[in-house]
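User: Please predict the structure of the protein below. I'd like the answer in structure-token form so I can feed it into my own downstream comparison script.

Assistant: Understood. Taking the following sequence of 450 residues as input:
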Amino acid sequence: MTRLVVIGGDAAGMSAASQARRMRGRDELEIVALERGGWTSYSACGIPYYVGGLVDTVDELISRTPSEFRSRQHIDVRMRTEATAIDLDRGMVSTRGVDSGAEETLGFDQLMIATGARPLRPDVPGLDAGGVYGVVTLDDAMDIRRAVVDGKPRRAVVLGGGYIGVEMAEMLLERGLEVTVVLADPLPLALLDEDMGERVCAVMTAMGIDVVTCSPVTGIETGADGRVCRVVTETGTHDADIVVLGLGVRPDASLGRDAGLAVGDYGGLLVDERQACRENVWAAGDCTETIHRLTGKRLSVALGTHANRQGRIAGTNIGGGAATFPGVLGTAITKVGECEIGRTGLATREIEQEGLSADTTIVESTTRAGYYPGAASIVTKLLHERGTGRLLGAQIVGGPGSGKRIDVFAAALWNDMTVADIAGMDLSYAPPFSPTFDPVTITARKAAKR
């Protein structure tokens, strides 16, 4: 019998294990999954909403429990078991019990690496103090919620203005805390163009969030109890009862790298279109790098959607099938307050880095017919290649009903469409959902005239 060992029990790892099981029966394939934490297949993207109380229990963030994997798919899930080393020549994984410390070696015929990502932590003194929290695992989620509910802090500082940073800032504000977001960058959501980021920053400020920009953190000060009391930056200090790290993540590829597998410029494991690192060794999810469809270059994108899809592709190939991962566009969506934000493709600075020549078209419209109750402002920005009109990127900032329109542009990018193609698309219309001409087609039509 062939043995598949999976390192990592979240999205990519368990998607691969489940798909491999569907492809091959339990008499042909033994599957052992190692997870150092206490949960499998959970939604890390839901952590801010659990902290904010929109999700009642942590169990609601779990897609499938270890016992369900064991009973339904006959996968030997070993919880609180950490892989400590990989010997590729011998086909062995060294493991250690997180609680017991017991060490063991486990042989494999096929190896799936899905070790995920780790939070970025600036090299500043005091960051390991009590009251400083990362936002990666369900343990982090429970710790933050417990601190907010039981500790009744008054002031929170969020370090970083990426997706998790702005989402956590909103949820902490909803919990009644005074919230300060400290950024090293000039604006939150640095993947947006400056003009669109300014709109998001204005919304956050109007909500009551203090956004401090261009202020790299230099230290964390603690009180007599050893817990955080102040955040020190290059431009000033900010009192804090809790600090949340929203600086983003980077691939946790050290296990594979130490075993001799290649890593890229972003620190992620290098895989081919089949999610293979080498023969019989596979990787997927946040620990890997993937290809941007527009530039052909490798990048690191930590999203559950990609992790699940990549894991399923790896599992198909492990199980004897044939599947490939087609790359990404960097499509993403989030919200802060009533403001919805979406982006796909390339931003202006990325277009310039690629040496492309592009025009910009920006249109402000409404999410519904102007006379229909609840119509909100929506700003749509298109970046399109000069001369050809080929769409290169799109960004949206607006009220409720704005964000998911980014998927129309993502589909257009996926299919290499021009702005003229988009302007002629047959999109739906009814007053509760859009104006007669949707903001998507209005902006594309204006761009096509150029």
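That's the full token string. The CA atoms of residues 113 and 283 lie 5 Å apart.
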